[in-house]
Write a structure and sequence with these properties.
heterotrimer; A alpha+beta (236); B alpha+beta (224); C alpha+beta (265); A: 236 residues; alpha+beta; Ribosomal Protein S5, domain 2; five-stranded mixed beta sheet; C: 265 residues; six-stranded mixed beta sheet; 33% strand; elongated
Chain lengths: 236, 224, 265
C-alpha cells in the first residue's frame, strides 16, 4: 500500500469540503448549486412542460431529460469548444438513469422535465456533483420523488480504496480506479455505477460499501441546503 | 409500536420517514412501504387524526374540474381557442362556452378573443391524458382587460387567498385593487400602478414566506 | 408568450414602470464578483436584479493571422443557456446569442481595448489569443448590459498562465501576476424605447414590448466604440442622440459600480 497519504492531506474516507445552496436560478422551477472541493455544478429544472418532438411523448408518464454541460472555461487545460460532445451526451444519459428510479412522473403524461446542469469549474467527480445538485433542484421544484439520491466517486489508488478522488488522484502514476456511484438514501441501492481503470472484485465491493457510507455525508449537506432555504424566522 | 417521527409543520424532504407502524395512514404526497410512511415531495408535515400528509412547498399545478384558472390564448381553432394554462397541458375553450350570443360560422373569432389575450375561466373537464376543457360562461369569468398579471408558485395559492378569503380581502382592501386569483398560479391585479405594485409585493411576500408563523401580521404591517 | 404588453406600454407613456422604478434606474442589487472559476484565466459573475451571467477568459498560444503577423486576437462568444430561461433551447446558437456575442465583441475589438501587439510573442509565429465566453445563468432581462460588465470584469481580472520556457507548453494550473494589456475599458449600455419613452435595464417583460433599442459602448470620455440598433421600429436622429446621451451617462454609472467591486483586485 504505497498511497496512504493523500495528495491533499485527506483521510481515505474523507470527502472534500462541500457547499450547497438551493434557489440559485430564480426563474427556473427548481435549482441548486453544489460544490465539492474545486468541482462546482449548477442544476436547474424546467418542467413539467410540453414535450417536443411529439414522438418522444409517453402517454403513461413524463419524460426525464438531462443536459450536462461543462462551461468553456471549466476544464483544467485549454478552452472547451461549446456544443455537445459525446462525453457530455453519455454523462447526460447516466445522470438521467441515476435519477429515474427516484423520480415519479406518472402524474405528467406526455410532458417533459428538463434537468440542466452547467459546471463553471471542475476537478473530477463532475457527474457525481451534477447528480447531487440535480437531486436538490428536483426536490426544490416540487417534483414527486420517492427518495433522495446522493452521489460521490470512490475508487482505488495504488491499492488503497478511497473516496472522492481529485483530478490529480485520477491521473496518479500507478494503478488507479475511478468509480462514480449514486446511492438512494433509504434503500442504499445504487443507481449510478461506472468504473475506469483496474480493480479487483473484492476491492470493488469494498469501494461500493465505502460509497454507501460516505454518501450519507453528501445527503446531510443536501437536506441542510433544502431545509435552510425554508428556514423560518426566529420567534422574537 | 407505531410512532410519528416528525413535527407538525416541519420541513420534510422527499424520502424522509414520517411514521412507523401500521396505525397511521398515508395521506397526500406520502406513500407507505412495509410499515413506514414516507414523504414523496418537499413540503410541510401535517397530521390530521391518523392521516399523515405533506403540504407541498412547490410543484406543478394539477388541473382539476371546477378550478378557476387564468389562461392566455395561444391559437385560434375552427370553433374556439387554444389557451396556455401555465402547465404542460393546453386547454380548449369552445366558442359555445365563451359567449351567450349566437356566433355565425364565418365570424372572425379573433375579434372576440385574440392571440395573447388573457381570460379567467373554469375547468369543465380533464381527461386521463390531461386534455382540458374550460368555460368562460359563468359569473365572474371573463376576458381580462387592464391591470397586470403576475405568476406565483401554484402551491402558495391557498395561502394567498387565506382562510375564508381573509388574506386576499386584506390585500384588496389595503391596496384598493381588484384581484382575481387563478388556482394555476396566475393572478390578475387591477388598480392604480402604485396599488398594483404594492399588491404584487404583498403576494410575493406571502409566496416566499408561506411557511412562516404570523404571516398575516407581517402582511398587514407591510400594507399599512 | 408576452405578458402585460398594454400595461407596460401605457405605464411607460406616463414615465412609470411595473416595478415602480424610474425609467433611468437600474434594478438592485448590482453585484460583480471576479475570479469565480479557478479553471479560467479570468472570470466574473455579474448580477443585475435577478439577471445573472458569468464570463470566463481562456488564453491560448497560436500562430497569428497572415494579415496581422504582429498581433494576437480576441473573440467573445455568448451562450444563452436553456437553464436561464424557458425561451432558450439546447442546440446551435440562436440569432439572439449571435447578436449578443458580436455586439459585445465589437465593443471591445473596435475600441482597440486590448493592445493586440502586446499579445504577440514572436512575430508571425506565436501570439496570445483571448477567448471570452459569456454564460447566462438567469435571464430576467438586460443580458446586454450584464454581459458587457461580466466580460470587462473577467478581462480585468485575467492573468497570463505560466509558460514553460523550454518547450513553450502552457501550464494552465499556474498563473503569473501579469495582466492583459487592456488600454481602454468600454462599457456597454442598451437603451430601450417603450411607449415613446426611453428606459434602461429592461425587465424580461419590458424587453418583449419595446419599439426599438440602441446599444452603445463608450469610454469614460464619452467616445463611442460600438453601436447596434435593434427592434421593429425606426428611430429619428434626435432620438438616437438622446438615447446615446443616456447610454453614456449610464455607462459611467456602471463603470463606477465595477470599479467599486474591483478596488480590492
Amino acid at each position: 500500500m504505497v498511497y496512504s497519504e493523500r495528495l491533499d492531506g485527506r483521510k481515505i474516507d474523507e470527502l472534500r469540503p462541500m457547499e450547497a445552496k438551493v434557489g440559485v436560478v430564480p426563474s427556473a422551477d427548481g435549482s441548486a448549486s453544489f460544490k465539492t472541493g474545486k468541482t462546482w455544478a449548477i442544476a436547474a429544472i424546467r418542467g413539467p412542460r410540453e414535450l417536443f418532438p411529439r414522438f418522444l411523448q409517453n402517454p403513461k408518464k413524463g419524460l426525464l431529460r438531462c443536459h450536462y454541460n461543462m462551461m468553456p472555461f471549466s476544464g483544467s487545460g485549454e478552452r472547451i469548444r461549446p456544443g455537445s460532445s459525446r462525453r457530455a451526451q453519455e454523462i447526460s444519459m447516466v445522470i438521467m438513469n441515476a435519477l429515474e428510479p427516484v423520480v415519479d412522473l406518472s402524474a405528467f403524461p406526455n410532458a417533459v422535465v428538463d434537468v440542466f446542469v452547467d459546471l463553471p469549474q471542475t476537478d473530477a467527480g463532475t457527474r457525481c456533483a451534477a447528480i447531487t445538485a440535480a437531486a436538490m433542484a428536483l426536490a426544490h421544484a416540487g417534483i414527486p420523488m420517492k427518495d433522495m439520491i446522493s452521489s460521490v466517486a470512490v475508487g482505488q489508488v495504488d491499492g488503497t480504496v478511497l473516496a472522492d478522488l481529485t483530478y490529480n488522484e485520477e491521473a496518479y502514476d500507478a494503478i488507479v480506479s475511478d468509480i462514480p456511484v449514486a446511492v438512494l438514501h433509504n434503500s442504499k441501492e445504487i443507481s449510478l455505477l461506472q468504473m475506469d481503470g483496474e480493480i479487483s472484485k473484492d476491492d470493488l465491493i469494498k469501494a461500493l460499501e465505502l460509497a454507501q457510507t460516505v454518501s450519507e455525508k453528501v445527503y446531510d449537506v443536501q437536506i441542510k441546503a433544502l431545509k435552510d432555504y425554508y428556514a423560518k424566522e426566529e420567534k422574537q | 409500536m407505531s410512532q410519528i417521527l416528525v413535527e407538525e409543520r416541519s420541513v420534510i424532504i422527499p424520502g424522509e420517514v414520517l411514521a412507523e407502524g401500521m396505525d397511521y395512514l398515508p395521506g397526500d404526497n406520502t406513500y407507505r412501504e412495509n410499515d413506514k410512511i414516507y414523504s414523496k415531495v418537499l413540503g410541510l408535515a401535517s397530521v390530521s387524526g391518523r392521516v399523515l400528509k405533506i403540504t407541498a412547498l412547490a410543484g406543478p399545478y394539477v388541473p382539476k374540474v371546477e378550478d378557476k384558472i387564468i389562461c392566455q390564448v395561444t391559437d385560434i381553432l375552427m370553433s374556439g381557442w387554444r389557451v396556455n394554462t401555465n402547465t404542460a397541458y393546453s386547454a380548449v375553450l369552445n366558442v359555445k362556452d365563451a359567449t351567450q350570443r349566437y356566433i355565425k360560422k364565418e365570424e372572425d373569432l379573433s375579434k372576440i378573443l385574440a392571440i395573447g389575450d388573457y381570460v379567467v375561466v373554469k375547468i369543465t373537464q380533464v381527461t386521463s391524458q390531461n386534455l382540458i376543457d374550460v368555460t368562460m360562461k359563468l359569473p365572474g369569468l371573463r376576458k381580462i382587460e387592464g391591470g397586470r398579471i403576475i405568476k406565483i408558485n401554484c402551491q402558495k395559492v391557498p395561502r394567498v387567498i387565506g382562510k375564508k378569503a381573509s388574506m386576499i380581502s386584506l390585500i384588496k382592501e389595503k391596496t384598493g385593487c381588484d384581484i382575481t386569483v387563478g388556482q394555476n398560479g396566475l393572478i390578475w391585479i387591477k388598480g392604480n400602478p402604485e396599488g398594483e405594485f404594492k399588491a404584487e409585493q404583498a403576494i410575493k411576500m406571502i409566496e416566499e414566506k408561506s411557511h412562516y408563523e404570523g404571516l398575516t401580521v407581517k402582511v398587514e404591517e407591510f400594507l399599512s | 408568450m408576452i405578458t402585460n404588453k398594454t400595461a407596460i406600454s401605457d405605464l411607460a407613456k406616463q414615465e412609470k414602470r411595473l416595478d415602480v422604478r424610474g425609467l433611468r434606474d437600474y434594478r438592485e442589487p448590482i453585484v460583480i464578483d471576479t475570479n469565480i472559476s479557478w479553471t479560467a484565466e479570468g472570470s466574473a459573475r455579474v448580477q443585475i436584479g435577478e439577471t445573472v451571467v458569468m464570463a470566463g477568459v481562456k488564453l491560448s498560444l497560436e500562430k497569428p493571422y497572415n494579415d496581422t503577423p504582429n498581433e494576437g486576437g480576441i473573440m467573445v462568444n455568448a451562450e444563452l443557456r436553456p437553464m436561464s430561461s424557458e425561451e432558450y433551447e439546447s442546440g446551435p446558437p440562436s440569432i439572439k446569442a449571435v447578436e449578443l456575442s458580436r455586439v459585445i465583441d465589437r465593443g471591445i475589438r473596435e475600441a482597440k481595448a486590448l493592445d493586440m501587439k502586446k499579445l504577440c510573442l514572436e512575430a508571425g509565429e506565436k501570439a496570445w489569443f483571448v477567448t471570452v465566453d459569456i454564460i447566462t445563468i438567469n435571464d430576467e432581462g438586460n443580458l446586454f448590459d450584464a454581459s458587457g460588465l461580466a466580460v470587462l470584469a473577467a478581462l480585468k481580472s485575467a492573468r497570463f498562465p505560466v509558460v514553460n520556457t523550454e518547450n513553450g507548453a502552457i501550464n494552465y494550473k499556474e498563473k503569473t501576476e501579469q495582466k492583459l494589456p487592456l488600454t481602454k475599458e468600454p462599457v456597454s449600455v442598451t437603451v430601450y424605447k417603450v411607449g415613446g419613452k426611453f428606459l434602461v435595464d429592461p425587465s424580461k417583460q419590458e424587453e418583449e414590448v419595446y419599439d426599438a433599442r440602441l446599444t452603445v459602448a463608450s469610454d469614460p470620455n464619452g467616445i463611442i466604440s460600438a453601436i447596434q440598433k435593434g427592434g421593429p421600429k425606426p428611430l429619428s436622429i434626435e432620438e438616437i442622440s438622446q438615447m446615446s446621451d443616456l447610454a453614456i451617462e449610464k455607462a459611467n454609472f456602471l463603470r463606477e459600480k465595477l470599479n467599486s467591486f474591483l478596488k480590492d483586485d
